[in-house]
Amino acid sequence: MTEEAHNFLSKKNIVIGLDAKSRDDAIRQLAQVLERNGTVTDANAFAADVLKRESMTTTGIGHNIAIPHGKSKSVKQATMVFAKNKTPLEWHSLDGSKVQIIFLMAVNPDDPSKEHLRILAKLSGKLVDDDFVDEIKKENDPARLLKIFADEEE
Predict the structure, then answer these.
(1) pTM listed for this prediction
(2) Is residue 9 within 8 Å of 80, Cβ to Cβ?
(3) Which residues contact residue 121 at a Cβ distance below 8 angstroms, ignoring those fewer than 6 apart?
(4) Which fold has domain 3-153?
């Protein structure tokens, strides 16, 4: 895994057993995680930016997975949170499925690096691989999940 990709997802940004009650609640809770981890300066502002983006078109890509993302001035460093919610959430997914797997991407609009686009493209490519999706759905150990993502990068 490249150094940039490795910095993009870290153990502290893996949340197993998220207990969100709605899409908006999930985004707000994960924004708080990013604020606690120091990559977002204002969780509320970031969540508002993500929800604004979400109102334009759903990020529920199907197969119980969503990739919400937002460009926000409150993002200090491009990053991603991987979360599994305890219960399926309504997300207006393209295939009508409820979401339990969430990849929340955080990007600063002034970041000249397009690393997040490369990561998003790689992630999107992996998410069409049924074996990869099955693995991340079954695995609940953050270290093992990081290894699955790392293996997929090589």
Answers:
(1) 0.91
(2) yes
(3) none
(4) Mannitol-specific EII; Chain A (3.40.930)
